[in-house]
Design goal:
By secondary structure, this protein is mainly beta. It has one helix spanning about 15-20, and strands at about 10-15, 30-35, 45-50, 55-65. Strands 2-1-4-3 form a four-stranded antiparallel beta sheet. The longest helix has 5 residues, at about 15-20. The radius of gyration is 14 Å and the shape is elongated.
């Protein structure tokens, strides 16, 4: 079985408010690493997670590796 055809892939979620520079107080960009099933979720993943730089729950979107 080929390893490149697995259904589950590792994705990186990045805080969207830190990335856009909305919060001027933040000192960096926070990222989460998770997995998704590429057959069930073919489009980009967006989850609401806690960002310690913004100090609140924000939308974290999938980025390229």
């Amino acid at each position: 079985m080929a390893k490149g055809k697995d259904a589950r892939v590792r994705v990186i979620l990045e805080c969207t408010s830190c990335r856009k520079g909305v919060n001027k107080v933040s000192t960096g960009i926070f990222r989460y690493i998770t997995q998704k099933n590429r057959h069930n979720t073919p489009n980009r993943l967006e989850l609401r997670k806690f960002c310690p730089y913004c100090y609140k729950h924000t939308i974290h979107g999938e980025i390229k590796k």
